Protein: DNA 3'-5' helicase
Amino acid sequence: MKPSKYQQRVLDWLANGKGNATCNAVAGSGKTTTLKLAAQQLRSMGLEPRDIKVIVFGKQNSLDLIAKFGQEWKFSIQTLHSVGFKILQQEIGKFRRDERVVSSKYRQIAEQKKLIPRKTKKRTYKGSLTESKAISRVEHFLTLIDLARLTLSDLSVESIERIAYHHNLEGIHDFKRVSRAIADILIEGQEQAINNHRIDFTDMVWLPVEWALNEKSWFQTYQFVLTDECQDLNAAQLELSLMLAGDNGRMLYVGDPCQPPGTKVLKIVKRPRGRHKIKTEWVKIEDLKVGDCVYSYSAQDGHFYTSCKVTGITERYYKDELVVVKTKSGLISKYTKNHHCIASFEPFKNHYCVYLMQLGMQFRVGMSKVSINESGGTGPVARLRNEGADAMWILEFYESRDEAFIMEQAISGRFGLPQLVFSDAPIRTPQLLEKAWQFIGNNFERAAECLDYFGRDIRYPLFKRDRQWLQSLKRPMVVQASNLVDGCLMLPYKNHPHCYKKDWEQITVSKERYEGSVFSLDVEKYHTYVADGIVTHNCQAIYGFSGADNQSYQKIVERTQATELPLSLCYRCPTRHINLVNRIFPDIPIEPSEDAPEGILEQIDNNDLWSDQHEAHLKVGDMVLSRKTAPLVSLCIRLIGQGIAATVKGKDIGKQIKSELEAIADITGFRYEEFNLFVEQYREFKFQTYENLDNAEQLKENLADKLNALFTIYSSQPNATCIEHLCNYIDDLFSDDESPITLSTCHRAKGLEGDRIFIIKPEDMPMVWERQLGWQKEQEDNLLYVALTRSKSTLYIVGKPDWFKKDNEQDEDEDEETSATFGETSNGNTDKDSEALATSTAELEISRATQASEVNSEDAPSATEGSIQAPEVNSDDSLLSTVKNLQLVDHKSAECAARQALELNSSEPISSIDVSGVMLLIKKLFSYEEKCELLTLLTDEVTQEKWDRVFNCLSKDSNRSDRAVATECQVSAPFVGKVRKNMIEIGEIKPEAKRVDKRGRKHKSPVKSG
Structure:
């Protein structure tokens, strides 16, 4: 294959360039092909596969790439999880066959520590976090543990709150208690990895970074590291990939980048040259840019330098106390608790201090003389070293020994913390100390309470064992703001290139509440800058919050100082599709290939999906995309009713919906018969909890989408009698396996492609809500970009979104109509009034009834594999006129009125009429209870023909599994289960029959208890 001009630039850089590079690849630009060409180029330069590491996402992708590259690359092409696992084995030893990856490892640890509910044979533990209402959703807590590792979080309260906020984990309430619990769990997790070889998948990428295993002598680095899909790297994965290159290796990243304020920083506007003096100005930290030069202080020689550039700028949300520092001369600056400051404790050189020392999960209180010169081994750092402890905090300084001694006793008594040393062999035998500390046990919570009282934070020790030789109170040191105390010294900038001892000023420390954005800088070389007139240290924040940080590509460019090489040719999409993308996203440099076809780009109505007279009717092999889940669920159920064994892509989506379902079932007094009322109650409660949150509108949108999907599922299962039945149906409805028609959210569609793509509910993209943050708007734009770049031939827009304009088409507002798709309100508003969801409930149920009635006609033609049939829709005006003339009092229920209205309006039997046209009319004419009752009449099982197909198949061989029968009969497995149950009840087949799949393998039925 001849490389494109863009790919040739990459190959030229490999051969003749220096440093690192990133490939800014558009959708369909041949990223895998580029990697293959790069590998071939490196081989031609004399490098062996063992000198190169190729990183891909997903085991299947690695196997596919090995097949393309050749077997000699078998050990060079890996996922980051595979790389991390190999590194861990070198550190802690090879795993035995019985030592496997435990995916539920951290759930088990949390249960063992009685933090979350746990059931045993003898009793049930509620869990301290759930019982204290620190959390209300266990799954959200476990997700938070994963994200804390993936983001390399410092586990501060603000970091944990930020992660929860970013990922909409509204089940977390007491962030202080939760952050402590996570720290406790992660310590235990590391110990289990070392001692018992117990790890989960996230440990594979987290532990090598957390333990800094690249500093080991045995750690292998590579001359070249090639990384695919780099925009999906989280913080832990990015660090691991950087470790593989070491100090001398080169890196090529291939990916798709699509995509407190007011602090004053001293910026260098013009550097001194000859007779020209330096020119500076104070600028707001949020106005700085990467590449700007700032004043930077060197602690080694006491000089300020003007040539240091800003290499990174981080903005993050913060909701907690700020540490407010005021110098003697009146300078004021504010810091987050974990901000790195440069401070001196020299004024306390003749004082005594009370400290808190940590060893593992045990803590003790102690007292010592500060002893600035600690060569005699009596100061706090010497105590830390001599006792082999892990960390230490200084709680307070005192002028006299007596005062420090008395306060040591008082603190010990108030917080229940022992004064017993961890190690003191000359005085006490180790066996007695060990026995005593075993008796004391874990006192983590008491220590955290003590530190909170003194304004310290258990996440940020003043001294740590792993850097003890660099720690001393006799010289200025880098400390986190939570460890600053009244009377210590900080350095103001005196408008002079050199500082002296007399320039340091004493400070006073206070706290104030703050909620909003905070900014931090990373400055090259000396890693310091001047903020609000005071020298401060770097505080570069964590790099991301999930598997796909929206700025991960840009951060890789900044972190590696990479040369950017574009891959702008799209080999997938036709020219008309590319032109549409260019109109919507003019800043994305995507171009069609030279031989790209023109393609089909058409705007259609929802009814066209089901009309065999229209070219756009759904066929096997098509892909349907949606921003939300609910429209896909409705469409999937309708396809199942037509005899197509469809599923919605993404088991994780099903888990989220089940999580909401289980939360509803936990409501006091829940009864399945009143499911709709409890869902409405749940919705109102959740919306109230969102009211004061910055991302309230987004949370409401997400919840409404899941509840709409849940309503659709509930409405489609009239024979279900309990929550377990719905959960089982959800498991069947959502799958990661292949399906005759692919139904996927835009989130799940990245990396997928197809000949014919349908975008339903296109007006949902890009989603906009009140107080939407910039990165959230960017991610919504990215989802639309993904949806528009999946098609290789035909793209259908099912609706009339504002962003779509046909070629040469002018805006005609009078012709625009908003189409409501399967259970969604046309404007997408989630909080119109308290009846919004109730209305949605009725519409969903009636919509499902409509779908059932369309396919239950005995006279209707059966669905073939290539097309899906549906009758035409009647006139809304005619139906409205008919329904208005009916008197509800003459009928037993609203269902009778609905049926009679339909039959009066048409000579056709009710079962063959599409009643979607009366859905909104019913909404206006009937009460909420009457709308719900309509489901009873309008929902039928399925067509008699479909029932007969399954009945005959089971009659011939009842041993076959539901899925095997469903595949042959082109129906869903749950429907086969219904037919089987009916046949067992009437005695047609025996319930004890052993089932086998289509290959003849035995099917193991789940064992039911009770």
Q: What stands out?
A: Residues 540-548, 810-942, 1004-1010 have pLDDT under 50 and may be disordered. Residues 575-839 form one domain.
